[in-house]
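BACKBONE GEOMETRY TOKENS
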Amino acid sequence: MPDTRPGREKILGVAQKIRRNTRKGNESGFRVIITGKGGVGKTTITALLAHLFAQKGFTTLAVDEDPQMNLPFAAGIPREESDRIIPLTKNLDYVQEKTGVRPGAGWGSMLTLNPDVSDVVERFGIKGPGGVNILVMGTIMQAATGCLCPENTLLESVIRYINLREGEVILMDTPAGVEHFGRSIAQGFNQAVLITDPTFNAVQVVRQSAHLAKELGIPTIHLVINRVRSENDIRKVQEILGDTMDLFSEQFYLPYDEDLIVCEPDVVPLLNSASPFMERLITLQKTLENYGTKP
């Protein structure tokens, strides 16, 4: 017998309306977190991948979470314009507007823990060459994690929000090392690109990052070995990683390219190159696309 209790029909109607209007996130588009030790080429690769996706017609947002803030330079934003960029964590008025507390105000203030940041890309996103959108977030330069401060609250809210933006490829260039890894960043990112060069310290960072990414539930993890000069470089990395190699869905080897030194910090001219480096990077882009658009 159907349930005819008073209000049942009204409750069902409200539930259906909520279900229709709830943004599930990531219904189209996909999220890629890019990480590794400092100096291995994360920012260069992020910038080039963003342009390759934009060239293929994807709406692309490259997010700079690295305190060095080099992604705008690499993506082709003129230096004088890049120098004027204020990261979100340093935009004191915006932090206060969204969290209710000005950075450095001290304890005792009422902090909004879930601020509405739905205007962040429109207000602070930068349109780069080739249609690439860039958002410079900045980070918190503190050793302690889980800081209940307005800057961290804002960053976590922004990350949650961009994970809900539909129809976009999101590429996040993260700080060096593994300390930034946490559920607030990893949640919603369905691919991780871990970049190393053939040095022991860089490979150790990737080794730790691969295990953390797996523990945090990122389903697809890719290994990129940058600046490869010989087969010995590849074997060295594989030997150091050992059983960790089993965690990677795909592996990519990018050859050393002197043109990167010539072009930097603006690596956009490399897009017109038919070098082995760019050929391999295009293969990486296609692989990310294939994994990201799987049903």
Observations:
- The CA atoms of residues 85 and 284 lie 30 Å apart.
- The first strand starts at residue 29 and ends at 36.
